[in-house]
Amino acid sequence: MSEALPSASSPKSNSSVPARPYIGGQAVLEGVMMRSPTSFAVVVRRRDGSLHVREKGMPDGRTGAAKLPLVRGVASLVESLKLGGEALRFSAEQMERDFDEQEKEEAAKASSAAKKTGIGAGALRMLQAIAYTLFLLISADDGGEPAGSSGEVIEPVASPNDAQPEKEKASKGPMGLMLVVMVVFLIALPQAAAAGMNKLLKFGLEVQSPGFQAMTGAFKLTIVIGYLFVIRRFLPDIRRVFQYHGAEHKTISTYEANEPLTVANARAKTTLHPRCGTTFLVMVALVSILVFTAVGGFLPKIQTGKVLLDNVIFFAEKLPFLPLIAAVTFEIQRVFARYCTTGPLRVLLWPGFLCQKITTIEPDDEQLEVALASLRVTLFREEGIEKSVVPAVTAAGQAPAPADVRYRSFDVLMKSARLRRAA
User: Fold this and answer.
1) What is the pTM of this model?
2) Taking a C-beta distance cutoff of 8 angstroms, is the pair 92, 29 a contact?
3) In sequence order, what E strands does 5-138 have?
4) Which of 20, 65, 95, 395 is surrounded by the fewest CB atoms within 10 Å?
C-alpha cells in the first residue's frame, strides 16, 4: 500500500548543525517516491535491475498562507494526493513497459492468463480497486533507451512531458477519484453501517447523537483496519508494496538520524514512523468522531421521520467539515511527531504504529537501495547540485520537466556527483 505523507517539521538537529529539510515519501509499484521542499523524485527498479529516475524541481510551498496552521494541513493533503497519483502512474508505466518486454522475450510460452497474474498486475488491480489513483497504462515511448557514453548511466530516457497537455488533463482524474473514495470510506460507508446496526439492534439513536457518532467511528476504524488486513492476508502480490513502504520509513529514519545513506544503516532502523500516512488515516477516523460529536448538537435538528433521509441529510452536512478534520489531524500529528516519540507520551503513537504493523513489511536490501536512491536524488537539488528548470505554468503552458535518467546500479547512482550531465 502506498502512502502519501503529510509534510512535517524539519528533523531535529543541534545548534551547531544547520536545520535540514524535511522529507516525505510514498511507496509505489517497485519503487519509492520522495518529496523534499524543492524536489519531487521517483525511483523504480526496472526488470533489468537498473534504477529509473524521474526528478523535477518543485516550488517551495512553505510561503504565505500555506505556512499558517490548519491551512498548511489542507494544502499538504491536496499536494500529497496529486503527487502520489503522479508517482503511482509513473511506476505503473515503467512496469507496463517491462511487461511488454518480457512478453516479447517469452512469446512462445506467455499467455494472457499468465500476464494478468503477475506481481505488478495484481498490485495494479488492488491499487485501482481502492482508487488511490487511476493508472494510465500507456507507453510514453515506443523506442529503446540508448546508453550514455559513460557506460554507467543510461540517459536521457524519455521526456516525461512529451504529451504534457494530455497528462495534465488525466492527472485531475485520479485526484478527484481519490477524494471520492476517501469520502466513501471515511464517511458514507461507516455511517451506513452504523445506521444498519442502529436499526437492527433497535438502539433508537438519532443520527446527530454522540452515541451514533461513536458507533460510526468504531465502524470507520473497523472498515479501514479490516481492509488493510484483507489485502495483506489474501493478496500476496501487495506485500512488495508494503515492503517498499517499510523501506521508505527506514530510509527517512536514517536521514533524520543524520547517518550516511547506506543499506547497513537503513537496515537497522524500524519500519514504523510517526508521520506515516497510515497513522494519519487512523487519526482522521478518531478526530472525526470528536468533531462530528461536538458539532452535531449545533447543526439544525434532523427529524424528517424517515431514517434513510435523515442519514442522507446528515451525510451532506458532514462534507464541509472534511477540510477541518484533515487540518486538525495534520496539526495533531505534527505535535505527536515532535514531542511524543520518546518517553511516556509515546503511548499516543501506538494506535498508528499498530496499524503500520499491517502496512509495512521488512524490506530486502534491494528495496532499501531503491528508497535510499530516491532520497539521494531529492538531495541533489536540495544541496544545489541539480539546477535544472523548475516547471512553471505560463501563458504558453507548462514548461517541460527535465528528462528521466536511468542508472545501471545503486552504487553508480550513490557515487554520482550529479543527477544529470551538465548541459
Assistant:
1) 0.78
2) yes
3) 24-28, 31-36, 39-45, 51-57
4) 395
Q: 232 and 304 in contact (C-beta within 8 Å)?
A: no
Amino acid at 72: R
Q: Please tell me the distance from the alpha carbon of residue 368 to that of residue 94, in angstroms, as a whole number.
A: 19
* CA 407 vs CA 49, 50, 162: distances in Å: 9, 6, 21
- In 3D, which of 76, 78, 101, 89 has the Cα closest to residue 31? 89
- What's the CA gap between 61 and 279, in Å, rounded? 23
Q: How far is CA 8 from the centre of its chain?
A: 14
Please report the pLDDT score of residue 223 as a whole number: 86
C-alpha cell at 148: 550514455
* Helix, coil or strand: residue 50: coil
Nine-digit cell at 161?
512531458
Retrieve residue 116's grid coordinates.
494478468
Highest mean predicted confidence (pLDDT) among 217-226, 273-282, 296-305, 371-380: 371-380
When pLDDT is averaged across residues 55-64 and rounded to a whole number, the result is 75
Predicted pLDDT at 168: 44
How many Å apart are CA 253 and CA 250, to the nearest integer? 5
Cα–Cα distance, 309 to 313 (Å, whole number): 6
Q: How far separated are the first and last CA of the chain, in Å rounded?
A: 38
Residue 251 has pLDDT above 50, yes or no: yes
Three-class DSSP category at 34: strand
Per residue in 142-178, pLDDT tens? 333 333 333 455 554 543 443 343 444 444 555 566 6
CA distance linking residue 257 with residue 267, whole number of Å: 13
